[in-house]
């Protein structure tokens, strides 16, 4: 199988080079080599066959959240090692190999049906993807197709590039894992692949199956497609400049973090772009995701698996000229309120209240989520750390941003998702341009 795989790749690359020379390159060719289902190496015990989702899991959307890891030094090793280690991981992460029952999403049927695993060859070079700032169809080639394993809670696609290198895409249902839990699972798989023993997960679940009424904001219907995503880099030196500027404007409840500062800057610029497009200011709502593990999980919070996060929100109701330091201060005041939440039930109620606010059609919402300092850049399958990690913004009709550590470790990469008509205005905002790193 190993020899056949690489002979197939060689044939694809040779054919593409011939066609490019003779007719000129028209498009990238992406070829699926194989697809199969990876199941747990040991069957799940009967007493673990039902995993009741936590209250916060039930509030989470069902769509898959993909991460793509680019490895320049992939050594063309036998992928059977990846498959075997993944199978071993699923014995510990047994809900991930299960399925949602047709009639409910309040629990997972841990039936060991497994996860989709695809291998594909791409005639482009890895550099073409690493330097791409746009979220477009070229990135989508590297992601598992929706038609493959449609009921799978996780899908994996290993992509091989012309000239060497590989990208591993892992897409996980948000309903079973937030960003931190996703990073933990993928690292667990990588550590097992290297022959080491990682920390096992601790699944957060409800004591009984309770179906909650999900706010309408979570059921928006079909994605209309009128949105576009762009990546922007903010270096640490630029973020320090931003912090110094904000601190000179006025007193803060606490020392603002890089993510808080950048969230508020982008929120202000997006609100301004929206007002310029429509010709009128609309009340603006900023919602920011916060990891709650250290606040409500007493033992080994880093092992808590599921959705252990909430949203905090602040609303600007009456002014088209948003004062940056005031937004930062308001966001911090809301963050301090989280200190009073003592358990998952209280966090879930807080989360529900914020989701209800997001359902206000009279306001323009901007949702911020940070994956910074989560161990994505430490995912090492034996080929070294990835040269770049990319996430894809989900197909939703929302303005928002997802933050990741910058690939070179210097600063933050922001994946900004806006309406197509607003993005050109946003990209020309002088206040924003003062802090963007030109790359």
TrEMBL record:
The keyword Transferase applies. The keyword Transferase applies. InterPro entries: CAT-like_dom_sf (IPR023213). It comes from the Eukaryota. Its EC number is 2.3.1.107. Transmembrane segments: none annotated. It is an enzyme of class 2 (transferase). Keywords: Acyltransferase, Transferase. GO terms for molecular function: 17-O-deacetylvindoline O-acetyltransferase activity. Gene3D superfamilies: Chloramphenicol acetyltransferase-like domain (3.30.559.10). Pfam families: Transferase. Belongs to the plant acyltransferase family. This is Deacetylvindoline O-acetyltransferase.
